[in-house]
Amino acid sequence: MNVRGASLARSSRASASVQAQSTSGRPHEDHMEQWNDATFARQWAEENTQENPERKQSLDLLLRLISDHLAGAPAPRRVLDLGCGHGAIAARVLHEVADTTLVGVDGSAAMLELASERLAPYAGRFALAQANFETMTPDDLPGAPFDVAIAVQSLHNSTDEGKKRALASVRTVLAPSGLFLLLDRIRLATPALFGAYRSVWDTLGAEYNGQQREGHTLEAHERSVAERGDKPGSLEQNMLWLREAGYSQVAALLVVGVRALIAAS
Length: 265
Description:
Distance between the termini: 26 Å
Strand order of the largest sheet: 1-4-3-2-5-6-8-7
Structural class: alpha/beta
Number of strands: 8
Number of helices: 8
Order of helices and strands: EHHEHEHEEHEHHHEE
Shape: globular
């Protein structure tokens, strides 16, 4: 694990490097090396900002949940961003939620470099760490215990075992009253209802992660998912994995098509 950025109180530091793997919700492992290419990463980051209107509603809700949960909590209020990418959501947390510190974890060194640049105005309040979901342990997540942990579009590229390892690792580093918020793609698990999914995408997709582009046929949708290298679990699988990881309270707060916001504690 490589930790960079400003030191946090009680942040652990380790020198062992982990094989880089992107954890920010991106293409098939055959193409994962591109996320460690600085030019490619910067171009992607410029095209995918927190101002993207297709993400606004879901991210505004996420920030409201974080803020409400931390209201009244003693400072510093520690937040873990699992799969932080170029730091767009981390920057919103540090800017909008008072008295927070944040640890961002990602598999891409190039993305972490961009996150370091973006978060520079918040020096002293953040640290960044490189880690691989497929081999993740709690030791890869410095700065515990966390009052809130988030994973936004960052788990669906991992294998099922990688997802389980990440969820269990986060559970270990959460404070007893901590809240985990998972906002990610879910698998279309009922193909016979594809027509209903398409109606949702056509009506609400542009406001929820661009789902209007999910495909006009089931075959086109499944091909698109496969070409991106996505491996999302169904809503039921994600909730089961969370319970198996030790979360006693699990709830699907918002499900729109093939995106879900799940809370666990």
